[in-house]
Write a structure and sequence with these properties.
The chain is of the alpha/beta class. It has eight helices and seven strands; from the N terminus they run H-E-H-E-H-E-H-E-H-E-H-E-H-H-E. The two termini are 31 Å apart. The structure holds beta-D-glucopyranose (BGC).
């Protein structure tokens, strides 16, 4: 991390906006999911920390949330498996009573040049990043619809936040499976938002770009890679998972109640065509 990055990291106190709400964050034992789970907890929500591997890391996130005064519990489930997703929702509802906020975050990359990409690499990425979001969103919509609005908690019947990427609009050579999954999330999210708006359910996406997480460490962990990544970011710092956590709190809260079907880019300006900042 350079001095400029250090100097410019925000650390505002999170307002309590989510008291009484029950949240599920998938892929919440590392990276963006972990930061989102902790931020929702700090903002007053009780949080289910979903994960698929790494019991200790999931328990650490749970402990952090509990230490901050909210309830938390880890549930292991593979989001691409229909039965495991349905069992996770049953377990959540047994323990927390309901769900108010779903953050569809679990995702991964299996990069390869197109001609060398295996069907397994394609299917793994589509299965977790896209089908996983479908399976979790479907269970959440079922519970939101059954329960309806509880004004003491929120004026909406439920909120879904899909973790997309700048790559829902930026093509990405050698990452066709990943870009296809994120492009798919965009229109799944918007189609779902249109369908469930009349029953008071809000659905939005966060589109992070260049956030420092374990899955993209190759892009920032050497000085050369860091400099090259920074050249894509007009704001001249790399994003931190907490940058996404704060936006998730806002989108989950009634502060953004009139927002639905939006792709919210949180990318330091990565999608502003930085190569056009001079000339063009
Ligand atoms: C990817 C990262 C990448 C970033 C910007 C994200 O969606 O997961 O690996 O650095 O987009 O290209």
């Amino acid at each position: 991390m350079d001095d400029n990055q250090n100097l410019r990291l925000p650390d505002p106190a999170l307002p309590v906006l989510l008291k009484g709400q029950k949240a599920l964050v998938t892929g919440a034992n590392s990276g963006i999911g972990k930061a989102v789970a902790i931020a929702l907890g700090r903002s007053g929500a009780d949080v289910i920390v979903n994960y698929v591997a790494g019991d200790d890391a999931a328990q650490d996130v749970v402990n952090t949330i509990i230490a901050g005064g909210s309830k938390a519990m880890a549930i292991k489930a593979d989001v691409s498996d229909e039965t495991q997703v349905q069992n996770m929702f049953k377990e959540m509802i047994q323990n927390f009573g309901t769900i108010d906020i779903l953050v569809n975050n679990a995702g991964l990359q299996r990069d390869a040049p197109f001609a060398q990409m295996t069907l397994a690499q394609w299917n793994t990425v589509i299965g977790i990043n896209l089908t996983g979001q479908f399976l979790c969103a479907r269970e959440a919509v079922r519970e939101f619809t059954r329960r309806g609005i509880n004004r003491a908690v929120s004026v909406s019947a439920g909120k879904i936040i899909c973790m997309s990427s700048v790559h829902e609009v930026i093509p990405w050579a050698t990452h066709a499976n990943y870009a296809a999954s994120k492009g798919g999330i965009m229109l799944m999210m918007k189609s779902l938002a249109q369908e469930v708006a009349p029953i008071g359910i809000r659905v939005n996406s966060i589109c992070p770009g260049a956030i420092r997480t374990p899955i993209n460490s190759a892009a920032w962990s050497t000085p050369d890679a860091y400099a090259s990544l920074l050249s894509h970011i007009p704001y001249k710092r790399i994003g931190e998972p907490e940058d996404i956590g704060r936006v998730a709190v806002l989108l989950a809260s009634d502060l953004t109640d009139y927002m639905t079907g939006a792709s919210v880019f949180v990318d330091g300006g990565m999608t502003l065509y930085p190569e056009f900042s001079t000339g063009g």
